[in-house]
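Q: How would the C-alpha cells look for this protein?
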Amino acid sequence: MAKHDCYHCGLPIANHDENKFRTVILGQQRDMCCPGCLAVAEAIVSNGLEDYYQFRTEPAQKSDDGILETLDKLKVYDDPSLQEEFVFDEGQDKQIQLTLEGITCAACGWLIEKQLSKVEGIKQVAVNVQERRALVTWSPLQIKLSQILSTLKRIGYVGSPFHPDEHEASYKREQKTFLKKLGLAGIMTMQVMMLMTGLYFDWFGAIELETRQYFYWVALTLTTPVVLYSGSTFYVGAAKALSAKTVNMDVPVTLAIFGTYIAGIRSTVLEQGEVYFESICMFIFLLLLSRFLEHRSRHRAAQISANMMQYVPVSATKLMSDGSVTECLAKQLQINDVVLVKPGETIPIDGVVSEGHASVDESMLTGEFNPVRKENNSVVYGGTVCQDGSLTIIVTQTLKNALVNQIVRLQASAMASKPKAAQIADNFSRYFVTAVLMISALTYGFWWYQGSDDAFWITISVLVATCPCALGLATPSALTCAMAKLNRQGILLKRADALEQITGIDTIALDKTGTLTKGKFTISSAWYADGVDSDSALSIARALESRSEHPIAKAFTGDKASNDDYKPADYTVHKVVNFTVAPGGGISGEINDTLFSMGSAAFCVHESQQAFIEEYPSANVFLTVKGRIMAAFEVRDTLREDTQETLDILVKSHTLTVLSGDTQQNVDSLTASLPIETAKGGLTPEQKYEAVQAMQHSGAKVMMMGDGINDAPVLASADVAIAVGNATDVAKTAADVILLGDQLLSVPVLISTSHQVKQKIRQNIGWSVGYNVLILPFAVSGLLSPWMAVVGMSLSSIIVVTNSTRLLSK
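A: Here is the predicted structure in C-alpha cell form.
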C-alpha cells in the first residue's frame, strides 16, 4: 500500500496535503480517502477490533460516502410483512441467513463475528467465509434487524437476506471458474509434457544447447498462466490459513508450486540445473481435478434437498370467496386461502384437501414413485404433482414454512454439524501438515549437509507426495454422498453426526400408533352408560375430536368408520370452548358450560369409576363428564404392510421394544405375531421417557421411533430419534432423522447406509494415511522424483473421492 493510499480501502487519496479524514489506528495516524472509510475505521477502532488491520490479507472495499444517510434506509427490513419471507422463528428468538458482500479474506469473517457478538441482543453468529454467508440469531425484544445490518454496514460489509436461487447461481459461477482453471491447466500440461518428455527421453535427437534452452523458455511461458491463474485457488487458501495463524493442506501445496516454479525460472535464466515445469502443470491440474470432483459431489448431495424449491411453481390458482378464480404468486398465499389444482399441475403450497379426489406423485419428497390417493382431509405438500382429478386445497402453511423449505433449512443445519470422525480428521490434518513442513525442512537440511545437488528437488518431492489432500476429503466426501443417497429415498438427516451414532445402536424402541400401525383408526365396538343416548354421546365425542389432531380423531369424525350405522353427522352442532390437550392422555372441552373429557381411563375416568372399567376390558377411549363414564369405545388400528418385514430385518442385530400409550391388552394383541422382546402399554409420556432412561442407564444405546406430540420427550432423550411418516411438527423438532415417506423399510436402509458410511470413512482414512506413510521413505530418500510424487498424490485424492461416490450407486 502506497504512502498516500487510503489505509482502509487502499485507493489513492486525492489532494493528500489537504486531506482531513484521519484517525489513529494501531498507534499511528492513518489517512482515509472519504468520510465513509473514516466512519467505518472509527467504528472498528471504537469496538476494540483493531487487530482486523493486522490480520487482513487484502484491503477492504471502499465504503459508501453517504454511509450515515444510507444506514437509515435499512429500517425497511424491520417491516414484519417484509421479514415474513426470510426470517424464521427459533423459539422466542429470530434467525436469518444473510448474504455478505465485501468479504475478501478470513480476517473479514473474524471481524464480523467479533463485532456482532459484542452487540447486545445477538445470540449467535456463524460466518461462512467461503460461501460469503452468515447465520444470525437474535432477540427481537433487544435489537432490530435493521440495527444488525447497520452494524455490518458501519464496519464495511453489506448484508442482505439469503435466497436459494442466488446460492445456486453462486455455485454455477464457482463451477465455471473451476472449469476455466482446470481447462487451462489441462491444455498447458499436455503442451509442456510433450516438450519436456521429448527432452528427457532424447526424442529430438542430439539437439543443440540453444535449442534446448528455447524449449525451456517455451515451457516457462506455457507454465506461467497455469501457476498464476489455475493455481490461485491454493494460494488464497494458504493465505487465509496463515492470516488466521494456522496451517492447512494449501500451505505445502503453495510452497511446492512456487518453489519448483522459481527454481525453474532460475535454471532457465542461468542456463544451468534441472527444470520441472511439466510437474508443476500436472500437479496443479490433478489437484484441481480432485477438488473439482469433490466440489461436484458436494453439490450433488446438497442439490437433492436445496433444489427442491425448483419443484414449487411460481404461481397458483386462487379460488375467491365469490367463486371466481385468479392467478397469484405462490409466496403470496396465506393460511386459509383456497387453491384450485387441475390435473397435471404441480401443487403450489402445503394444505388440506377440502374437495376432490386425485392421485398425487410425492416422489420428490419421499423417493417413492407410487402415486398416493388424496381425498377430503388428506394432507398435500407443495412441489408434488396432481396426476389426475382436480383438488381444492385449503392452505395450512405459507411458502416460507412449507415442507420443502423446512427440508432445505434442516439440510443446511445437518451439513453444518460435523461428526467426531470429521473433527478428528480435521485436527489430524493440521498436525499432519505441520509434521510435513518439519520433515521437509529436516530433509532439505540433511541432503544439503551431505552436499547433494538434489537437496531442493528431494524436498519438493516430500512436500508434494505427502500433501494430505486425500485425508481432508476422506470424511466429508463420504458424508455428503451418503446424505444424497438418503435424501433420494425420503430420509432427511437433521444432523450429520447422527449417522455416526446409528452404528452404535443396539436397542430400538418403537411407539405403536402411527409407527407400527397405519394410524387409520376405526371404531370396532362401543358401549354406553345406562340412561345415555348413543346419538347424543357420539355427537359430543365427534365435536371434541374434531378439534384434535390425533389420528384417533378420524375414527369419530366420520372418516371411514367400520360400523354400518356410524353416520357422519354434523358434529359442528356443538360449540366447544376452552379446549385443551394432554399429550398421551386425552382431550377436554366445554360444551354448553359442561366439561367433557375424552381419552384414556387414567386421564379422564374418576377413581370411583374404576370398577366400571372392568365392564369394558377392550375399551381404550372413554368419554366422561365430570369424571363419570358416558361411553366407552374400542378403537382399533392395523399394522403397516411393511411392519413385519422391517422388524424381521431389525431384530437380527437389535433388541426391539414397544412403548405405547394404548391399553396393554391392545398392545399385546397387536404385537403377538411380531418379533418384539418387550411390549409395554398404558404408558404416559413421562413413563416412556423413564423407560428409555432406564435402558440407557443399563448401558443400551437406544433409537426411538415415534410420530406424535406425546413422543416428543422420549424422542429428545434417545441417543438417536426418528420421526416416522406424517409425524407432528413437535415430533419432527425433537427427532434427529425424519422419514418423509410412509415406509418403515426406510429404517433398515438408514441403518445399512450408516454402516456403509463408517466403512467408507475408515477405508478413505486408511488409504490416505497408509499412502502417506508408505510414500514418505521413498520421497525422503530421494528415490521419488517430483513428477512421480505429483501423480501419486493426485491419484490418492481421486481414489478417495471415487470410493465415496460409490455410496450413491449402492
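The CA atoms of residues 82 and 369 lie 37 Å apart.

Residues 65-71, 559-572 have pLDDT under 50 and may be disordered.

Upvote if useful.
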